[in-house]
């Protein structure tokens, strides 16, 4: 199975959904999630990394409960990484046991820490002050034994350099996350000597704009620190959370490394990960979800102004926030289909795809060459499984589209509704 859904796969899936009445007249847009591709990516992760690795998929990448439940049911080594209290509850509600959840928020409150400790959820502290809070909470009789059920690690910044996208790079000399290794090595070592319940280390280099070399360098730095701590405090570090960040492929002309490629690179640079001395955790989000979904938006109007052909559709910065605000760093290939879901034929014309929101930058695709779009056609955006719907904007109070899950069978694609189209009443309740 290809990493990406091909244009033909996208069109056939949309056409099948339309034929089954799953994109009705009220559905101005629709998302279809390839559940077989999701499963394939999860299997690849399990095969690539050491046996027993906890693959805690980032909830922020795709927080749909119906998708999270499928992750929880897939395998005991598939977990969830949560960065807020609601994400934590989403993971628990989906069926992940506490030992399969990593809680990584850099701004955890006393109440959130107490909850996580009481439930035995694996925690990564962001800084020394948070460790002090945990020490106070663990001194209480009610949760004094919580460390036996979960685990507590410290997030460090490996300081291996920023990637190509500054806003998603977190391992430069400065980062809002974690404790810098080069500046605070002595303090880090002292923290492990002070807190006997501190048994893990965590780092993350960045997302999408980071090279394989940078990711491996970050893990190597983390591993060297773990080895130093264990030389002083034998077998203290038991869990190494190496984060996520593996880029996903958004253009066929720019293929990215696979999960297997990353694991093979780590085997060469960090063979100790396969020694059995550590339990490994990952936090992939984009690499698991991104290529497993596409979105279709109906074309409402097509107009020409100042020589620019503009197709006005029903998805824009409400779903493609990063793409619209920072188009130089983020990309989605687009595909033109007709009203029945078939790929449009005809001479390519340079066009701009506009979203429905009330600001000029609401342009999810600029100057793209497609067969001339018309009213009633649709534009399909590829590779939307991660950091799209999860970043939905409430600007203009537009309704979230329906999300379908697709699996394959000998009879053709089968669909389930993962999330129904949001009603106007639900949007009103949100603001109330």
Automatic annotation (TrEMBL):
Its cofactor is pyridoxal 5'-phosphate. Keywords: Pyridoxal phosphate. InterPro entries: Ala_racemase/Decarboxylase_C, De-COase2_CS, De-COase2_N, Orn/DAP/Arg_de-COase, PLP-binding_barrel. Pfam families: Orn_Arg_deC_N. One of its GO terms (molecular function) is diaminopimelate decarboxylase activity. Residues 36-289 form the Orn/DAP/Arg decarboxylase 2 N-terminal domain. GO terms for biological process: lysine biosynthetic process via diaminopimelate. The modification N6-(pyridoxal phosphate)lysine is found at residue 60. The active site is at 358 (proton donor). PANTHER family: DIAMINOPIMELATE DECARBOXYLASE, GROUP IV DECARBOXYLASE. This is Diaminopimelate decarboxylase. It comes from Desulfovibrio ferrophilus.
């Amino acid at each position: 199975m290809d990493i990406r859904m091909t244009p033909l796969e996208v069109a056939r899936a949309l056409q099948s959904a339309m034929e089954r009445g799953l994109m009705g007249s009220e559905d101005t847009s629709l998302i279809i999630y390839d559940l077989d591709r999701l499963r394939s990516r999860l299997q690849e992760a399990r095969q690539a990394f050491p046996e027993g690795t906890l693959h805690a998929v980032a909830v922020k990448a795709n927080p749909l409960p119906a998708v999270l439940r499928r992750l929880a049911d897939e395998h005991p080594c598939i977990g969830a990484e949560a960065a807020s209290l609601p994400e934590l509850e989403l993971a628990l509600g989906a069926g992940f046991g506490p030992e399969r959840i990593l809680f990584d928020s850099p701004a955890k409150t006393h109440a959130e820490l107490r909850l996580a400790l009481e439930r035995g959820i694996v925690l990564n502290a962001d800084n020394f002050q948070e460790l002090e809070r945990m020490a106070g909470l663990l001194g209480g009789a009610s949760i004094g034994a919580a460390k036996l059920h979960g685990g507590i690690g410290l997030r460090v910044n490996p300081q291996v350099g920023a990637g190509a996208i500054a806003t998603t790079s977190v391992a430069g000399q400065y980062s809002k996350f974690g404790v810098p290794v080069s500046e605070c090595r002595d303090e880090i070592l002292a923290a492990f000597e002070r807190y006997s319940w501190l048994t893990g280390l965590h780092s993350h280099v960045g997302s999408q704009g980071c090279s394989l070399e940078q990711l491996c360098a970050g893990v190597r730095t983390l591993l060297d620190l773990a080895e130093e701590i264990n030389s002083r405090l034998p077998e203290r570090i038991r869990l190494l959370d190496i984060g996520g960040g593996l880029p996903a492929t958004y253009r066929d002309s720019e293929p990215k490394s696979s999960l297997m490629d990353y694991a093979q690179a780590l085997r060469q640079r960090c063979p100790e990960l396969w020694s059995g001395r550590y339990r490994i955790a990952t936090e992939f989000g984009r690499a698991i979800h991104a290529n497993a979904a596409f979105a279709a938006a109906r074309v409402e109007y097509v107009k020409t102004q100042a020589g620019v052909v503009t197709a006005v559709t029903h998805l824009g910065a409400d779903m493609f926030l990063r793409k619209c605000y920072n188009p130089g760093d983020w990309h989605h290939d687009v595909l033109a289909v007709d009203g029945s879901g078939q790929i449009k034929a005809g001479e390519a014309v340079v066009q701009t795809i506009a979203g429905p929101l009330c600001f000029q930058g609401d342009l999810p695709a600029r100057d793209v060459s497609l067969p001339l779009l018309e009213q009633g056609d649709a534009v399909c955006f590829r590779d939307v499984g991660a950091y799209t719907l999860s970043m939905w904007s409430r600007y203009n109070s537009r309704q979230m589209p329906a999300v379908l899950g697709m699996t394959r069978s000998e009879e053709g694609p089968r669909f389930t509704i993962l999330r129904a189209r949001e009603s106007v009443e639900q949007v009103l309740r949100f603001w109330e």
